[in-house]
Write a structure and sequence with these properties.
19 strands, alpha/beta, single chain, eight-stranded parallel sheet, five-stranded mixed sheet, 434 residues
Length: 434
């Protein structure tokens, strides 16, 4: 399929210019810019489906074009589980306990359908790369223990030509006995993409970090760690993560998520942590929706909200993405896998509303997370696989004010999705499996 798009706005490059982009055999072969709308081609239709016109020249009339989104921190196994895994207190602890109990009664079909529902919604909103964390508890029955990883790997294969899914099981956060280690070694033979965990909730958090690194180094796997998801400024596994990263030569292979306690530290503590993170070449992801919802539940008066120091991390030169985390589950009861919505929430939470700030927000859901997870072969650069989302908005201000649902997603040499309103799916996936 050959296609040329005329008059697209690409605000992460220059919000004042229009761009013409030519695609051949699924790859971008040229991009030209100009200052004024130019005539030519037929008007683009967001309503058309399965559009396969040869040699088409399409005028998008100033609509915004962005590289496809990368959602690098999701929990597909938990998504849409809220109907059968409640969280009355709204705390992280109850969310962990509630889903942990409910997950023992979930069927393969229920879990995969909920996962599929989330991926399809994310795709329709512009996402073509997902890194999902998957629970792995070694002291459950074997079918329950491996279900999340098995379903995620099957989903990865199902969507391989449409959405790149990376599977990062979360190793348990309790001290391991011989049986635990046997099952972890079995897990690490399953063609996963990396490993993660939440060592800050371990009885010995810093040893929990060291355990993760031992397995990662042994099996040459990258790490993506839930880090210090706590309101307590003394929660500081990030310092051990820094030490272990440098010790094992893992610079550039460790991503840290949440970093809530960093927001609670005094300025001197925070500055020291950020400098050490930079020395270890860590990358980071903020999860503002879930953190705003879960953190500060025990506070009175001035309530801490948990969102990490996004602007300070970025100013220090640390790559920071923003991501969905949880979708309609006990950890976060809202969401639809729409990273543009998450970018807007990040703007609220991190005080990022200025002209340069909102461009940074767009970078935090496109090129920057793609680079963090190594997805650099697709996007909107010449020579790359053409992978982008076209949104019916004509300025960055309109984009963030309205979060337009009218979007078209291109990749794999074709239009993968077009929608004019929010996507609606069958409710059977979110019904109780018990």
């Amino acid at each position: 399929m050959e296609m040329t798009l005329l008059n697209a706005r690409i605000p992460i490059w220059n919000a004042n210019l229009y761009y013409d982009m030519a695609i051949q055999d699924g790859k971008i072969v040229s991009i030209d810019s100009h200052e004024q709308l130019q005539s030519g081609g037929e008007p683009f239709s967001f309503a058309a489906t399965d559009e396969e016109r040869k040699g088409t020249v399409v005028d998008v009339e100033g609509a915004i074009l962005l590289p496809s989104f990368s959602d690098i921190h999701m929990h597909l196994d938990k998504s849409h589980s809220l109907p059968f895994a409640q969280n009355i207190s709204g705390t992280l602890q109850e969310a962990i306990e509630s889903y942990g109990q409910a997950s023992q009664f979930v069927t393969d079909e229920n879990m995969k359908e909920r996962m599929r529902k989330t991926v399809l919604s994310a795709l329709a909103h512009g996402t073509r790369s997902v890194r999902t964390h998957i629970d792995f508890h070694t002291r459950l029955d074997e079918d329950v223990m491996f279900r999340g990883v098995r379903m995620a790997l099957e989903l990865r294969k199902e969507f391989q030509s449409v959405v790149d899914i990376q599977v990062f099981p979360m190793l348990p956060y309790y001290p391991y006995d011989e049986q635990d280690r046997t099952r972890i070694e079995q897990l690490l033979t399953m063609n996963i993409d990396g490993i993660g965990g939440a060592p800050h909730i371990s009885p010995d958090p810093h040893e929990g970090v060291r355990e993760l690194f031992r397995y990662a180094v042994k099996h040459n796997l990258p790490l993506d760690i839930h880090t210090d998801e706590s309101d307590d400024p003394q929660t500081n596994t990030i310092l051990t993560i820094v030490d272990e990263t440098i010790k094992h030569g893992y610079e550039g292979r460790v991503n840290v998520g949440h970093l809530c306690s960093l927001a609670a530290m005094n300025q001197k503590q925070a500055d020291d942590v950020i400098e050490k993170m930079k020395q270890a070449s860590l990358t980071a992801v903020t999860l503002p929706a879930a953190n705003l919802y879960l953190q500060g539940r025990g506070d009175k008066g001035t309530v801490r909200r948990g969102v990490t120091r996004v602007k300070e991390l970025r100013t220090a030169g640390i790559p920071v993405a923003t991501a969905s985390d949880n979708v309609c589950d006990p950890f976060h009861p809202f969401g639809r896998g729409d990273l543009l919505q998450i970018a807007q929430i990040t703007g609220y939470a991190a005080h990022m509303g200025g002209k340069e700030d909102v461009i940074d927000l767009l970078r935090m859901i496109t090129d920057e997370p793609a680079a963090i997870i190594g997805q650099t072969n697709k996007g909107i650069q010449i020579g790359q696989e053409a992978s982008f989302v076209l949104i019916q908005a004509y300025s960055v201000e309109e984009l963030f004010a309205q979060l337009p649902q009218t979007r078209a997603v291109y990749g794999n040499g074709q239009w993968l999705s077009k929608m004019r309103t929010a996507v609606s799916f069958s409710q059977t996936a979110s019904e109780s499996p018990v």
